[in-house]
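User: What would this chain look like folded?
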Amino acid sequence: MTLVVIPVNEDKIIEAVDKVSRSVVNVSTVKLIHDYFYRVMPIKGMGSGVIVDEAGFIITNNHVVRDSEAIGVTLPDGSMLKGRVVGVCASIDIAVVKVNAQKLPAAELGDSDKLRVGQIVLAIGNPFGLAGGPTVTAGVISALNRTIPTESGILEGLIQTDAAINPGNSGGPLVDINGRVIGINTAIIPYAQGIGFAIPINSVKSCLTDIVKYGRTLKPWLGVTGITVTERIADYYELATNRGVLVVKVASGSPAYRAGLEVGDIIVSVNGEPVGSIEELTTLLAKIGVGGVAKLEVVRGRISYPVKVVLEGTP
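Assistant: Here's the prediction, encoded as structure tokens.
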């Protein structure tokens, strides 16, 4: 057996746990299913969540609350509140739950774009709502930008950690040594040891902002229909580049229309990041979000030039 020693000041870990624990909640659910004789049977479930806004907004996993008839939230002080789902971002397995309370202790959110492999992290959850505080495990970031299959689809861009994410800790925070939430614990691989995954908090922030502001998630809209440029397409149409997205339609009145994009233009980069396909363009626009500015590099004919587009929500 190999003993793994986390090389960090013990007081630092304790301070981080104390800081976040007051924001970690238990999420209990009741789902109704039909048995073999079509009788309705209640099934109880539970997970964790983290308070992200003092007005009562809580982040958890979508798979924890999906199809629930009732949701209960147990706060760190032991009080129980009724919760309701106000929005989900199913593509990243995130749900936003609202409770009727004010001045709740919201966790500090970090910046997952600055994470590095080897960084010390803590996985925190409250699967049973018991007195004495949440459960805590420690480890490091093992890898970044992982992709895994799940029952509901593919999760991309995940944080991989060896901090144990136990059943019931789904929806709880993954935090750095300063007590800042850098991810939401979402999955474990049951047949492997020391492999767990968390959703980067920057992806969660985008989801949360849309739901709180608009009541639903908004996908950023550029307003073009395009095709992925391949070498074959580039040769056939004698294009100036063999990569990017060829614009085949521009919606009237769209952000792209107002920015001057035309049919035949080729989008080759967004904010300095190369675009090689429709999928890559969609991913880069999603990172910018509704209301953000996309700095496009566009090839028209044989000339390359910059275009700034303010993204809108999909109409």
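The chain has three domains: 10-20+106-213, 22-99, 220-313. If you want, I can go into more detail on any region.
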